Amino acid sequence: MFTGLIQEVGTVKELIEHENSIELLFDAGSLANLIEIGDSISVNGVCLTATEKRNGAVTVDVMIQTLRLSSLSDLRSGSRVNLELALLPTERLGGHLVQGHVDGVGRVVTREAGERWERLLVFIPANLLKYVVAQGSIAVDGVSLTVGSIDDEFSQIEIWLIPETLSKTILGTLKVDDPVNIEVDVLAKYVERLLSKGDRS
Predict the structure, then answer these.
(1) Residue 44: CA atoms inside 13 Å, Cβ hemisphere, count?
(2) Assign residue 62 a region: left if phi > 0, alpha if psi is -120 to 50, beta otherwise?
(3) What is the CATH number assigned to the segment(s) 8-85?
(4) CA distance between the termini of the chain
(5) CATH number 2.40.30.20 given to 104-193
(6) What is the pLDDT of residues 20-66, one digit of tens each?
(7) What does pTM read for this prediction?
(8) Where in the chain is the domain with CATH 2.40.30.20?
């Protein structure tokens, strides 16, 4: 479980392709000494497991299903990635509960710079939009954000990025048409499941 508060921006060093997976090697920056083999790490919002460490770099395995459902398949050597370690029970929940289970891939539609904030329009797959509410939480590339408004006609959401988010995550470098990993609030999916089954006791 994660909070969506990014702790470090890492850099992809190498991708090793296998038949049904890739090994992703990235520089973990200040998190390198905190990561142990077997630890869960959120990489652009995808929960992965550390399999190896060497010289400040961490290796994770990315299975083919994860590549199909996320934007990790677009990573290249030199790509920057949002990193977050799993939440400890003693830590504050500053963002919202993020599982690291990506629901789909969206795309940047527009970005408009303001005096201090930046406005971002993001296309969300239509099947996920029903789980999104204005002023609710959503994770974009692993970053916990608040939805400003929703455009159901064009399947888009509006979010506002503060200077801290722009400087401490990769969201500040996104360009129009860039893919982004989307994870909707898991509570909405639980509610849908309960309502669809009804009380059958």
Answers:
(1) 30
(2) beta
(3) 2.40.30.20
(4) 31
(5) yes
(6) 899 999 999 999 999 999 999 999 999 999 999 988 899 999 999 99
(7) 0.91
(8) 8-85, 104-193
